[in-house]
Design goal:
This protein is 40% helix and 21% strand. By secondary structure, the chain is of the alpha/beta class. It has a single domain (3-117), classed as 3-Layer(aba) Sandwich (Rossmann fold). A 5-stranded parallel sheet has the order 2-1-3-4-5, with helices on both faces. α2 packs parallel to α3 (62-72). The longest helix is centred in the middle third of the chain and has 11 residues, at 62-72. The two termini are 13 Å apart.
Amino acid sequence: MSIPLLICDDSAMARKQVKRAIPDGWDVDITLATNGVEGIEAIRSGKGEMVFLDLTMPELDGYGVLEKVKAEGHKSIIIVISADIQPEARERVMGLGALDFVKKPIDGKKLTEVLNKYGLL
């Protein structure tokens, strides 16, 4: 059964990059969101069991998405993929329930490592 996977990033290039990094054979049904509001709507409609989330986005940033997911009790597995790699950012997203925090740009090797680390592949 396919895993509903949401890629939430305002950059079209970043969304494509994450899509290309997805391991071959990983059975996912991909939904794309360009901002946090679209991301939350996708999660609410069951399209974000697994989420790759950017932090810096218009309308609702990644922190806001994490806060809403936590407040609304969604069970989404969220991996933050962001260029903002300050220790404070990592600490904050982990405190809000993110599974991991990965530096952009991401490639297939790194994404596979992260997914294997948590038994998601």
